[in-house]
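Tip: read the tokens left to right.
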């Protein structure tokens, strides 16, 4: 795939970035003191927010121009909305070796960086031009949970299937506080009641609540052959970052790359048993966790949880749009806190409004899987670690009905004809 195709396939540029203008700059730039076009040297391009990262092939005799190339590109790209340019240089093994133009002596494979020079008033805090050839002895070992920038963002259909997990279902919402985690544990338990082998992965790295809701908060998983052994909760294999922090008070104050690395470690370095379904409780929003999961975990489908409230619907819409863009099917919408019935007088009231789930269903042509009431007993049972499906409260039947609709949408597992049992 060409770098131009790579740029067009990048999903996460900032809305302030003019991709067409970025493309024009990269296509039209000519290297200093030559007639060589930059576009012929670019091998990789990636845009994350307002940061552009490119990989460029150069030759030894061009070392003196590296900083000039970086500065001129940075100036031109700033007009396109790019606030930071990271230019990775791969030096080809041809031509005569020369001294770097920055006034310092450089060994083969090292970089000429703007950090080695005095800062000028015109260009304060310029990011360095670094060598990405991987030839330096000091290069850090590759982190399997945080791979280097790829030529193009991986597509969902290209992600290999987990050897022991048949289906992965995401329970997601664009907004926090709509009952997503409560829905996750009850749907998982309801799917198990239907005869499926179910596991639960808590991907809400910053606010894990699954351990509390499944009654195993404070427990930690065993380690076997450098893999986590998932905990058991009502017969389900369960794992959360909350099981690794040890208590309720320790904050997970991590930046995006570390958080996404933790998610991939929980998914890949866990001894999951053979599962028909792994239900993943997603964090709210459409950020790093969602994009990493879409690019690196094979997903059967997503379930959107919302309340009828207009603010929640706006955020749920963003979640649906995200899944549509990354080719993850949306299996349906669950309208939570749909109605409230007073426990004293029996009066029914739609506290958060009406018709929200129907609106999403009609707008995106996806089924409304069910409505769940706003009842204190649902919250009380979840807080006690005995969710509605286990406690058998008034909402249990609603969760089972929704689970039946989801189970009907799952692809049938193909039997290995070579097996005799």
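Filled-in amino acids:
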């Amino acid at each position: 795939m060409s770098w131009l195709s790579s740029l067009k396939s990048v999903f996460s540029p900032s809305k302030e970035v003019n991709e067409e203008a970025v493309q024009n700059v990269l296509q039209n730039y000519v290297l200093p003191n030559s007639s060589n076009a930059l576009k012929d040297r670019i091998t990789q391009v990636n845009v994350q927010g307002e940061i552009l990262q490119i990989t460029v092939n150069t030759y030894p005799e061009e070392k003196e121009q590296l900083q000039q190339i970086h500065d001129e590109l940075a100036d031109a790209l700033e007009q396109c909305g790019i606030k930071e340019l990271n230019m990775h240089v791969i030096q080809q093994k041809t031509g005569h070796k020369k001294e770097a133009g920055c006034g310092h002596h450089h060994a083969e494979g090292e970089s000429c960086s703007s950090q080695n020079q005095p800062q000028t008033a015109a260009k304060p805090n310029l990011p360095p031009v670094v060598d990405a050839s991987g030839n330096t002895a000091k290069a850090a070992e590759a982190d399997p949970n945080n791979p280097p920038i790829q030529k193009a963002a991986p597509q969902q259909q290209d992600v290999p299937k987990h050897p022991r997990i048949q289906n992965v279902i995401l329970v997601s919402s664009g907004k926090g506080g709509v009952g997503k985690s409560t829905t996750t544990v009850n749907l998982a338990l309801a799917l198990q009641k239907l005869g499926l082998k179910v596991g639960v992965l808590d991907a809400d790295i910053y606010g894990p609540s699954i351990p509390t809701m499944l009654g195993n908060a404070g427990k930690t998983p065993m380690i076997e052959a450098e893999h986590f052994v998932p905990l058991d909760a009502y017969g389900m294999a369960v794992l959360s970052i909350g099981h690794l922090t040890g208590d309720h008070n320790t904050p997970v104050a991590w930046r995006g790359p570390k958080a996404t690395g933790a998610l991939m470690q929980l998914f890949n370095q866990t001894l999951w048993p053979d599962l028909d379904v792994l239900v993943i409780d997603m964090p709210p929003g459409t950020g790093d966790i969602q994009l990493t999961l879409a690019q690196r975990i094979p997903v059967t489908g997503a379930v959107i949880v919302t309340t009828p409230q207009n603010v929640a619907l706006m955020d749920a819409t963003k979640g649906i749009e995200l899944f549509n863009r990354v080719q993850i099917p949306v299996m349906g919408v669950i309208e939570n806190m749909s109605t409230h019935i007073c426990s004293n007088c029996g009066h029914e009231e739609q506290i958060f409004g009406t018709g929200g789930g129907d609106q999403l269903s009609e707008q995106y042509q996806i089924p409304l899987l069910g409505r769940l009431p706003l009842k204190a007993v649902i919250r009380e049972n979840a807080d006690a670690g005995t969710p509605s499906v286990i406690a058998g409260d008034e909402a249990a039947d609603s969760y089972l009905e929704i689970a039946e609709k989801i189970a009907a949408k799952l692809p049938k597992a193909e039997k290995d004809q070579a097996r005799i049992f």
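The chain is about 30% helix and 20% strand. Residues 415 and 421 are 10 Å apart (CA to CA).
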